[in-house]
Write a structure and sequence with these properties.
Number of strands: 5
Distance between the termini: 29 Å
Helix content: 40-55%
Shape: globular
Radius of gyration: 14 Å
Order of helices and strands: EHEHEHEHEHH
Largest sheet: 5 strands, parallel
Number of helices: 6
Strand content: 15-25%
Length: about 140
């Protein structure tokens, strides 16, 4: 399973750590950048990652920036993306279960590595429930 990763400079160290973890677990990674802590613009990395998830090239994505807000807003400009900003494991699980989130966004400056792993694991362990949520998720795209 291929996973898209994207971040800005504030999320770089956490992204690098999570990519290592995911590779150890057998996931194939598509790293859309950034590739350093040098100041950069998150949309430059968010848009290609969103394109890869929308097209099916990647099964889902993980993204991060300092607060998580900017990269999440950018990802959600894509009609086929449901990016969810998650700072607790319970929120990550619900984002997948109820909203069928296809990109997990983590606020890199506000969670520890251990917390990020818990958030990622909750997202990975969750399954979209469909049912009563399907109608709502179907109303998200504007076009």
């Amino acid at each position: 399973m291929k996973v898209a990763f994207a971040c800005d400079h504030a999320g770089y160290e956490l992204k690098k750590f999570l990519i290592g973890l995911m590779r150890e677990r057998g996931y194939e990674i598509e790293d859309f950048g950034t590739h350093s802590t040098e100041s950069c613009d998150y949309p430059d990395y968010a848009h290609p990652a969103a394109d890869a998830v929308e097209s099916g090239e990647c099964a889902f994505g993980v993204a991060m920036c300092g607060s998580g807000n900017g990269i999440c807003m950018t990802l959600n400009k894509h009609q086929g993306i449901r990016a969810a900003l998650c700072w607790l494991p319970e929120i990550a699980a619900l984002a997948k279960q109820h909203n069928n989130a296809n990109i997990l966004v983590i606020p890199a400056r506000f969670v520890s590595r251990d917390e990020a792993v818990e958030i990622l694991d909750a997202y990975l362990d969750a399954t979209y429930e469909g049912g009563r949520h399907e109608r709502r998720v179907g109303k998200i795209p504007m076009c």
